[in-house]
Amino acid sequence: MILGGARGVGKAILHSCIQKGYNVSFCGRSPDVGNEIIRSYGLKDTLYYHPIDLNNTGEVRNFYAETIKRFQKVDALVLYAGITPVASILDTDEETYDQVFNINLKAPFFLLKHVLKSMMEARSGSIVFFGSAHMDYGEVNRAPYALTKSTLYTLSNHIAHHYAKYGIRSNYVVMGWTNTEGELALRAGEGMSEEELAEKAGAIIPMGRMLNSQDPVPAVMYLIADESRMTTGSLIRITGGEYI
For the chain, which terminal residue's Cβ has fewer other Cβ atoms within 10 angstroms, N or C? Predict the structure, then answer.
């Protein structure tokens, strides 16, 4: 089950899961985008797409219910979806604050409320949180985003500590500066081309380039696989050496 999965790294994870032969439930805002992904793979029986507004916890519950209806249980949950508005403490309005916390924190929390029950019954399960280098203190213009990512780390550790007795593991992947569709669109809005962005990032990131959508995938696939059954409460930084 992927919270997200129709774009960016989430879509790359979806593709890797399909290659492994997994049943996958994923979600997004556009029915057309999700249905086109399913059509392109020709896998109506093993893929399920749920159109969703992550500001609505009722829709989050329905996403879980439809996933269980089709696949009976959730072996792994990848919490990828999130938004990154440009907002410092000084210029964040209440609407922006609420939207960031609804999508980045409230939606995962209430999805976990349901998924954990399923995993407890099965006495197994893997949860992968997607974090950010902003979690430590964040750039000055990413204040609400930084708060949600640091709280998700606390939530990951909370689950790792309290639910290990049910065979459930929880780990946190810190994803660095990545050339996702959302990042490219954000920079384009600032008048920066993809080439200019790559040059800027290459000068900042110690490894010399920003991440692409494939870079975090191997770590996620390990964390949802049986090979990581004794790995929980971990944090892995896939950032090219970048620390905010």
Answer: C
The pLDDT tens digits of the residues spanning 151-178 come to 999 999 999 999 999 999 999 999 998 8
pTM here is: 0.94
**Tokens coding 144:** 């609400």
Taking all residues of the chain, what is their mean pLDDT, rounded to a whole number? 95
Q: In sequence order, what are the beta bridge partners of 174?
A: 131, 237
Q: Phi-psi category of 129—alpha, beta or left, where left has phi over 0 and alpha has psi -120 to 50?
A: beta
The CATH code of domain 2-176+211-238 reads 3.40.50.720
Q: How many CB atoms lie within 10 A of CB 67?
A: 25
Question: H-type helices in 137-193, by residue range?
Answer: 143-163, 181-189
CA atoms within 13 A on the CB side of 147: 17
Give the strand order in the sheet containing 125-132. 2-3, 76-79, 125-132, 168-175, 235-238
C-alpha dihedral (244, 82, 74, 60), degrees to nearest 10: 150
188-239 pLDDT per residue, tens: 888 889 899 889 989 999 999 999 999 999 999 999 999 999 999 999 999 9
Domain regions of the chain by residue span: 2-176+211-238
